[in-house]
């Protein structure tokens, strides 16, 4: 059964470019109001994207520039979405960070890099969900509408791949977090992770030709996907 998301309210983190932009546009196409989160440096591009989505689909679309590496930043994104759209039904936790390095190079990532990886790839899922809990739970109690959280994970989270060690570890941790949240917060919330392989985006191009070739080789189809 296909459920309509028309007039529902969604957040998309990392939503101003790449896969996040495609998700934001598609949500608007299906009639949802969209709060797009991106980096503060994405402000101009994010506002332009919001204008395009709003004009095309006659929906509300707003941008908030925030680095969601703290509980406070995640709370501000949720608050902005509720204030501008009137509620919150869907969270797409899509923001992520990494850079290419060999698994064998244990000096490639500093302690600060590891912490940044966890605070970008793993912890925002918990922080966003925690901030949204009273809103989604209240709506479920009043209307029966189930809150939805979807995270953009990766095949890197399912096993050692061509992605760098910190990225793989933090995505694996995210999978366990999603499983734990899903098991303990039904029936008012539905929480799932999607694990794509290599998708050609500005984010993935940082791997370089050798890294891209390695990731393609690990794909069953021996090729990358495009947006």
Describe this structure in words.
By secondary structure, this protein is α/β, with parallel strands linked by helices. The protein has one domain: 3-Layer(aba) Sandwich (Rossmann fold), CATH 3.40.50.720. The chain contains seven helices and eight strands. The protein has helices spanning 18-29, 43-57, 71-85, 111-121, 123-143, 165-184, 208-218; strands at 9-13, 33-38, 61-65, 90-93, 147-152, 189-194, 199-200, 225-226. The strands form two sheets. The chain has a six-stranded parallel beta sheet, sandwiched between helices. A two-stranded parallel ribbon has the order 7-8. β5, α6 (165-184) and β6 (189-194) form a beta-alpha-beta unit. The longest helix is centred in the middle third of the chain and has 21 residues, at 123-143. It is globular and about 50 Å long. The mean pLDDT is 91.
CATH level-four homologous superfamily name: NAD(P)-binding Rossmann-like Domain
Give the overall silhouette.
Answer: globular
Mean pLDDT: 91
Strand content: 15-25%
Structural class: alpha/beta
The radius of gyration computed from the alpha-carbon positions, rounded to a whole number of angstroms, is 17 Å
